[in-house]
Amino acid sequence: MGMTNYHGLKVDPKLAGFIVEKALPGTGIDADRFWQGFSDLVHELAPRNRDLLAKRDALQARIDAWFKAHPEAGIPAQKAFLTEIGYLLPEGPAFTIETRNVDPEIALVAGPQLVVPVTNARYAANAANARWGSLYDCLYGTDVMGPLPPGGAYDRGRGARVVARVRVFLDEAFPIEGTSHADVRRYHVKDGALLVDDLPLMQPEKFVGYRGNPKAPDSVLLRNNGLHVELVFDRAHPIGSRDQALLADVVVESALSAIMDCEDSVACVDAEDKVLAYANWLGLMKGDLAASVEKGGRTFTRRLNDDRVFTKPDGGELTLKGRALLWVRNVGHLMTNPAVLDRDGNEVPEGIMDAMVTTLIAMHDLKKTSGPRNSAHGSVYVVKPKMHGPEEVAFADRIFDRVEDILGLPRHTVKLGIMDEERRTSVNLKECIRAAKHRVAFINTGFLDRTGDEIHTSMEAGPFSRKDFIKRKGWITAYENLNVDIGLECGLSGKAQIGKGMWAAPDLMAAMLEQKIEHPKAGASCAWVPSPTAATLHALHYHRIDVFAVQKRLAAGGRRAHVDAILDIPVASFRKWTEAQILREVENNAQGILGYVVRWIDQGIGCSKVPDINNVGLMEDRATLRISSQHIANWLHHGICTQQQVTETMKRMAVVVDKQNAGDPAYKPMAPDFDLSIAFQTACDLVFKGREQPNGYTEPLLHAARLRVKGGN
């Protein structure tokens, strides 16, 4: 199919048709204005995009050469060299961000943040609806209460333990004068106050609303640390009918925000894929996204939740959002996409295309005059990943300046999320934030990509520790602490999110409840979770921890970490690994790589739950792929393992992965015809060609292979 010409751009008809027929109507932007503006944007800024990528390569070449020439150099020498080449920049004077019109979910309330592939309509709808979740269901159906419940009928004993545990939570968050929620027989509202067996809450202001008759309400709404909890009463409900207070459920405000991902968790390589992503984002912004769901032998349609309406204690009306506030994650500056070509026939930078199209689509939300809205403050929220240093952040800011001008939006309508996941951003974070001080509404650490970049940047410094040991090195604590410290110095508290990374084991909720409380304790106002269930359980941590009080204390104490500590490269100091230890490390990396790549290449699945070598299901995306492939590449380069060992391991683990996927009718086995499996060959290329990939990124090889599969080659 030929391309369609628009003002010097050649556009795939699938994308052109979607924009003209679906995205533009209702925005007030006519097609000619859009295409002329898009063409101007591409031809003005694509050369700068290429220059920035060339600078990455040039810096990396100089770093490689320096480490070869200075194999034993310490941090002072490294720091002096990085400063000399312009990698490490001087830190400027103090400032605070000037971002305006930020919604309260971003600025004023701390809570969980979901990240999902926008190409999956069901996941996207579930994530938007994950603003509220049943605490009873989430405890009952996970390992938090011990081994998972058997299938079949409701287990009353397990249910009773769930109810008892939730009553403990209610006592902690909403204590009552003189009694426990476990002993209460009646909740009612009198003269604007909540009475519990005629006793008041210790903090009466935590009662903020109800539904139904105040003498016997259908539900009671409570608030703690900015988060809402709804007690639902129903004498006809199987649980409520057996409860002395008729309490049928406790519904917790869970995912305050969610990131609809166009990047690491999707496999978008052409116009067809991009249209799928953009169409789901359009459905979310218009509010009409629907997904067919099959569950328990029946099929139904999942739609987006409406807002929730309560009666205030004073008799007025209180409306709360029924959906998470949505960010959209664009791609970074690296990749191009064949969906649009410039006047010279070059693929356009995909990040510029994302900026233009996702912002256009968000105008459907901005123009709403009634019904649920994503942003009540008239903002568009865009996460920009994988930026290297302040120049690249400034470039993203410039892109959105131009997009706003083309679309007629007020300056700084688009709010920017900066992912602190590349080494050059980490060591220059303050200046990165300064470069977008009118837009930044989010910073976030990303351990996996950050580690992948650490390995690639310092490839010549020596063999890295095993992955589990990398996590225990001092640089990672410094990285995580400095992100919060700099964010607080730059005035993000009360104006923007300071975030932490993903809990990658979606089945291990008991462990998450035990461990992930460290994120709010560290001063993070949001942290990533992989599912609505995880969001509801993680919300309990924000009831226990007042994040803004933590941030205030941390800000008063000054910085806990400094750049010198981040520059302490996690190369192995003890390198006398046994053959068994080396083999196990390579096997674990190989299994993760193969389990993810085979579904990405052959089925276009950008995020998968892949069993590790211990059979623990871990969420794998391109960030986890980057660290695993770079780790083996590093060990190969320094002779810890050989190409033959890695090849044999890849083949052996491919057989394991084939068995794990035997129940999937769409799955294509990699073994025994390894030479005919594009997926297997790509997985090997990610390792054996890992050192030559730009910054160790996996996208170039993945995209090329997926396009071959889609083209039938």
UniProtKB/TrEMBL annotation:
According to the entry, every stretch annotated as the Malate synthase N-terminal domain falls at 18-68
Q: Kindly list the positions annotated as binding acetyl-CoA.
A: V115, R122, Y123, S265, R302, P530
Sites where Cysteine sulfenic acid (-SOH) occurs are at: C607
Q: Which cofactor does it need?
A: Mg(2+)
Residue positions binding glyoxylate: R329, E421, G446, F447, L448, D449
The record's annotation in InterPro entries points to: Malate_synth_C_sf (IPR044856), Malate_synth_sf (IPR011076), Malate_synthase_TIM (IPR001465), Malate_synthG (IPR006253), MS_C (IPR048355), MS_N (IPR048356), MS_N_TIM-barrel_dom (IPR046363), MSG_insertion (IPR048357)
Q: What is its EC number?
A: 2.3.3.9
GO BP: any one term: glyoxylate cycle
Task: Give the GO molecular function terms.
Answer: magnesium ion binding; malate synthase activity
Any Pfam family: MS_N
Give the annotated active site: R329, D621
What's its top-level EC category? transferase
| GO CC terms of this entry | cytosol
Q: Does the keyword Phosphoprotein apply?
A: no
Every copy of the Malate synthase G alpha-beta insertion domain together lies at 154-224
Q: Which residues form the Malate synthase C-terminal domain?
A: 583-672
Q: Which UniProt keywords apply?
A: Cytoplasm, Glyoxylate bypass, Magnesium, Metal-binding, Oxidation, Transferase, Tricarboxylic acid cycle
Residue ranges of domain Malate synthase TIM barrel in the record: 326-560
Q: In which pathway does it act?
A: Carbohydrate metabolism; glyoxylate cycle; (S)-malate from isocitrate: step 2/2
Residues annotated as binding Mg(2+) = E421, D449
Compartment annotation: Cytoplasm
Q: How does it assemble?
A: Monomer.
State the similarity comment: Belongs to the malate synthase family. GlcB subfamily.
- HAMAP family reported for this sequence: Malate_synth_G
As for what it does, the entry says:
Involved in the glycolate utilization. Catalyzes the condensation and subsequent hydrolysis of acetyl-coenzyme A (acetyl-CoA) and glyoxylate to form malate and CoA.
Q: What is this protein called?
A: Malate synthase G
Q: What organism does the record attribute this protein to? A: Dongia mobilis
What is this organism's lineage?
Bacteria, Pseudomonadati, Pseudomonadota, Alphaproteobacteria, Rhodospirillales
